[in-house]
Specification:
Blueprint (H helix, E strand, L loop, with lengths): L2 E6 L6 H11 L4 E4 L3 H7 L5 E6 L9 H8 L4 H4 L3 E5 L4 H9 L4 E4 L6 H6 L5 E6 L4 E3 L6 H8 L2 E11 L3 E12 L1
Parallel strand pairs: 1-2, 1-3, 3-4, 4-5
Antiparallel strand pairs: 6-7, 6-8, 8-9
């Protein structure tokens, strides 16, 4: 697959080797530890599609600066990149926190046979993203009250329709700015 997998997480622990092995099995062209957003932006010129695989961490809040950095990138290749968290115990609080940080998916460890389908589901189909004052990420209004409230309250938001592919990277098909009064 002409894509890069950046592995996010603490260098110690089992998460990094397990996610590296998973990315190798999926045939990613490049697999690397995530060091900085600028490195990812440079890599996007070489492989059109970037994935961020986040290893399970003790304190999920420790991933917020990384998620915010990715979702606030000026590069569409990074900003709309699949951001996936691999959770040891994907409870409701973990899933809600990941949704609020703009993650595309939360996958439970240990991962089974369907994990490759879950990851590949991030490509080749229309994805809808929303941007408000307090949220940027996939359309998750059906998952949390926060998502519904963010778009039903007065204010402004942007709705994006994107398509991801290993051949072309990120295509922003529609970018609609709307004001709710």
């Amino acid at each position: 697959m002409n894509a890069t997998a950046f592995i996010v997480g603490p260098p110690s622990g089992a998460g990094i080797p397990a996610l590296t092995e998973l990315a190798q099995a999926l045939g990613f062209a490049k697999i690397s530890a995530f060091l900085s957003r600028s490195e990812a932006e440079q890599q996007s010129a070489l492989t059109p599609l970037i994935f961020f695989f986040c290893a399970a961490v003790g304190d999920l809040k420790s991933l917020k600066p990384t998620a915010d950095g990715i979702r606030n990138s000026r590069s569409d290749s990074i900003r709309f990149a699949p951001l996936i968290y691999f959770a040891r115990k994907p409870g409701v609080d973990t899933i809600r926190a990941c949704i609020q940080m703009g993650f595309d998916d939360v996958i439970a460890l240990p991962f089974g046979d369907g994990v490759s389908d879950r990851i590949l589901r991030q490509t080749g189909r229309l994805q809808v993203y929303y941007e408000t004052d307090s949220y940027f990420g996939p359309d998750r209004r059906d998952r949390t009250a926060t998502g519904r409230e963010a778009l039903s309250a007065e204010g402004q938001f942007r709705r994006y329709e994107i398509m991801r592919s290993p051949e072309k990277g990120i295509d922003v098909l529609h970018d609609d700015f709307q004001v709710v009064v």
